[in-house]
Amino acid sequence: MNINHKLQLITVLPLILSLILVVFVTQMQYRELSQQVVDVYRQSIIDHRKEELKNYLAIANVAIKHFKQSQGNQQTQQTQQTQQTQQEVKSMLADMRFGKNGYFFAYDLDGNSLVLPEQEWRVGKNWLNLTDDNGVHFIQELISGARKGGGYLTYLFHQPSNEGQPGQKLAYAEVLGQWEWMFGTGVYIDDIDEEAALLSASMSHHIRNTSFMTLVIGTLAVSAVFIGGIFMRVGEKRLANAKLRTLNERIYQTQEEECKRVSRELHDGVSQTIAAALFAMETAQLKKEYGEDSGPELEKAITMTRQIMLDIRNISHQLHPSILADYGLGAALKELGSEFSLRTGIKVKVKLLSVRKLLSTELSCALYRIVQESLTNIERHSGAKNVLISQTLTPGWLTLEVHDDGQGFNYECYEKKSTPFEGIGLRNMKERLSFYNGELKVESAIGKGVTLIARIPQSELRYQADSTTEGAL
């Protein structure tokens, strides 16, 4: 896996993890909210059913109120009339029905069954210790709630409409006045659970659809980022290839210019001098054959041979100065400045640091080439009389400046108008510095000379230093 694929994976992977986390958290929140809604819905229905049960019981109380009043007026006459009244009330309660499973029941406070429609075989028996399938003593609980002024209870009991199968029942009971009966009614609430289950299933379906849509949208977003990254990578690759081609063309052009320069110096200088020395030696040879004095010609040939050696040395020095490797950048720049002054008549002053071995050989060579190119530009274009080469250490940076007092130029306009192959010298300088994370700055104005500033971060140096005194690097 190359670096581009790794970068793309690092970009996309957090998005995928975030998408999964969002879907997971959203589902958890939706499920919690769904459960709360179902619970509220179920509780609201139960509360409504409880109100209905109280209303049913109130209706029953109104219906039997007449019997209770009649029984109270005749109680002093005879007990038989009381029993007859109670029997009429039981019959009335047994006949009062509502819905498929709604009926009234009655027990005395000792747990004896008095009224229980659909299950008359239980009437007359004591069911105080009767429990449902969950172990709830519901008769005791109902009697206890009735004694307290009325109470609700949920328990399992036989459901008439379901062939007597146990169903969850919500009941409400009160004490029936002076007779000390516990009577009440109830409704089966299995339908509430079914409705709540349907609501829960509907909301779960909605949650799944929402999560699916979120996942689809997130996947599309991640895919868009991934595809966008591919297009960006392809575009950057094309741009990098274009820059690489341009750089290669610059390098080829630079190499071609250097080859032309060396060829010109060899042809115009060394070759001509060699030809003249050869002619002098041939003349000396002819004179010797004829017995004439060949000394002047030999002396001339020796002088020319020395000049040839000097020219070859200068060319070699320009290609790679040995003093740079032997004595460092400071000595190499001083020698370069001296030779430049002798050749052009332009005064060069060099002010360098006293710290030795601060720069690597490669970095020293890069800075040397930058100064060399600067001096070449000064010689060709500036018309300057003085040049200052200085090197300083500022916080975090090593700075090399080349300043001349020539005619200068409008650098901002030059930068805007330059094409990729114009100003190749400055471009070469920038590219040399960029390899060491450095930067190049040019300050110039017409009539005010040119200042070229090359800066190298101290992280590229061999060690940290802060000396700014003159000396060699």
Description:
It is a single chain. The protein is of the alpha+beta class. The protein is built from 10 helices and 11 strands. The strands form 2 sheets. Strands 1, 2, 3, 4, 5 and 6 form a 6-stranded antiparallel beta sheet that branches. Helix 1 packs antiparallel against helix 2 (79-95) and helix 4 runs antiparallel to helix 5 (295-319). The longest helix is centred in the middle third of the chain and has 100 residues, at 190-289. The two termini are 43 Å apart. 21% of the residues are buried. The model is unreliable at 71-76 and 467-472 (pLDDT under 50).
Please describe the biggest sheet, giving its number of strands, its sense, and whether it closes into a barrel.
6 strands, antiparallel
Element string (H = helix, E = strand): HHEEEHEEEHHHHEHEEHHEE
Mean pLDDT: 80
Helical stretch tally: 10
The low-pLDDT segments are 71-76, 467-472
Count of beta strands: 11
Structural class: alpha+beta
From the N-terminal CA to the C-terminal CA, the straight-line distance is 43 Å
Helix percent band? 55-70%
What amount of the residues lies in strands? 15-25%
Morphology call: rod-shaped
Mind telling me the C-alpha Rg?
Answer: 55 Å
Summary of the model, kept short:
By secondary structure, the protein is of the alpha+beta class. The chain contains ten helices and eleven strands. The protein has helices at 3-74, 79-95, 138-147, 190-289, 295-319, 322-327, 329-344, 361-382, 411-417, 424-434, and strands at 97-98, 102-108, 113-115, 151-159, 165-176, 181-188, 347-351, 386-394, 397-404, 439-444, 450-457.
